[in-house]
Design brief:
Layout lengths: L3 H4 L3 H28 L2 H29 L7 E2 L2 E2 L5 H35 L1
Antiparallel strand pairs: 1-2
Length: about 120
């Protein structure tokens, strides 16, 4: 729903997308909290994704400000180097890789736990 913010200039679509997204967050908050309490490992994953989103937004903000005002001095710079925005493809690839690694790691951890319990039961 929030993607409608980026693809339209129609105010009604923007308003509806914001309201529906807010309602979805309110309705799903308890379910997300329960899931995170059962699976603490995904909490860190979520925080890392928020960090990546923040970096992407910072990279785009500097370029957008420079472009909108036709003033290249507004582009974001660190240590004298201009920050170039990350492509959306790179961002989504990084997020998918994070999820795949987390899923593989959690399955492997469960498998090791089962093997350890079986080994301890034999003793």
């Amino acid at each position: 729903m929030l993607s409608a913010l980026a693809i339209t200039d129609v105010f009604a679509v923007l308003a509806i997308a914001i309201l529906l997204s807010g309602a979805a967050m309110l309705l799903l908050a308890d379910n997300v909290t329960a899931f995170l309490q059962k699976n603490r490992m995904y909490e860190v994953l979520g925080l890392f994704i928020l960090l990546i989103v923040g970096v992407v937004l910072l990279g785009e903000a500097g370029q957008a400000a420079a472009h909108a005002t036709h003033d290249d001095t507004l582009a974001l710079r660190f240590f004298g180097y201009e920050v170039i925005p990350m492509s959306k493809t790179t961002f989504y690839f990084a997020v998918v890789v994070l999820f795949v690694v987390e899923i593989v790691q959690s399955r492997y951890r469960r498998k090791l736990d089962v093997e350890r319990r079986e080994l301890a039961a034999r003793r």
